[in-house]
Amino acid sequence: SENANEAMNKKYREIISTLPKLDPPHPTYEIYQYNGFWFHSSILEATLSLSDNFKAQPSDIYLCSSPKTGTTWLKALAFSIMTRDRFSDDDSTNPLLNQVPHNCVPTLEVDFYANPSFLDTELPVLATHVPYACLPPSILESDCKIIYICREPKDTFVSWWHYDKKQQQTFGIETGTTVEQDLKSFHNGTSMYGPYWDHVLEYLKESVDRPERVFFLTYEDLKSDTLCYVKKLAEFMGKPFTEEEVNQGAVEKIVARCNIKTLSNLEVNKSGYFDLKQWKINNSSFFRKGEVGDWKNLLTKDMAKSIDQITQEKFHPVGLKF
Ligand code: A3P
């Protein structure tokens, strides 16, 4: 009931109010630290509520990522892999033609409050940015599959920086922060769902311990051999391509459908927007360049060095190189 919900939300807000708060505060958002990670307050409220209330099904597949690491692309690919026998041969009825990929695969902690009915999808594919240890226990305790995508840290930061600036301009919430200041937050780990490196390492560890449960992939690998990784993804998701499908070009078709140029040229992704309760997001802001190494156009050598140093410390010992 409405009252029970209100009481629940009050409970989570009370828990949140006892947590470390970002200091000095973010200019527009309330940011709190939970389980070692930094969350936007309303995202954290949803995360806590999901922990208590969300029931994962054993057949579910979760697409997990930090923001700006290729989530939109992975959603489009996973959706296409799972639904490939549902649409007409020429693909003209494919929902990806008139819906942003984020509508085809909902994000747990974002859609939970904004549009709870989104979670009643027929397709057992859902997404989340929540760190591994903060996933709802029903996901952690079940055998459902997880696909994690990560990206070179400098490119991830730069992608986020452009996205955030665009959001700020569109919705008149300019923070006036410089690249240096924002990079410092990323570096210190106080960016959304940060520290970025720890987010990656938690999922990487799980994928090493239980490769049948967690498939770990990088944006760079996916870019360099999309066909090969789409086949691997399909196998992992339990929907391998048959020899006949491969011969008929089914994999190529999916790769083409999910190409950044194809998707970003669709009307829905040019002019549509995503209406969440707390904020709006233009669909176009999910598609920018989609290139590897674009950090060179924003960061100085010294800035790059400061990020590379952490990457070396945190990623090299576990064999993760970009
Ligand atoms: P850039 O800002 O570097 O261009 P997310 O989907 O996690 O928010 O990540 C967004 C990044 O993925 C952006 O990177 C965006 O351009 C890129 N991207 C979006 N759709 C893509 C696609 N279909 N193929 C490749 N990259 C894509």
From TrEMBL:
Keywords: Transferase
Enzyme class: transferase
Entry keyword annotation includes DNA-binding: no
Domain Sulfotransferase: 58-316
Cited Pfam families: Sulfotransfer_1 (PF00685)
Record has Metal-binding as a keyword: no
Enzyme Commission number(s): 2.8.2.-
InterPro entries for this protein: P-loop_NTPase, Sulfotransferase_dom
PANTHER family: SULFOTRANSFERASE SULT
Sequence similarity: Belongs to the sulfotransferase 1 family.
Name by which UniProt lists this protein: Sulfotransferase
Lineage, top ranks: Eukaryota, Viridiplantae, Streptophyta, Embryophyta, Tracheophyta
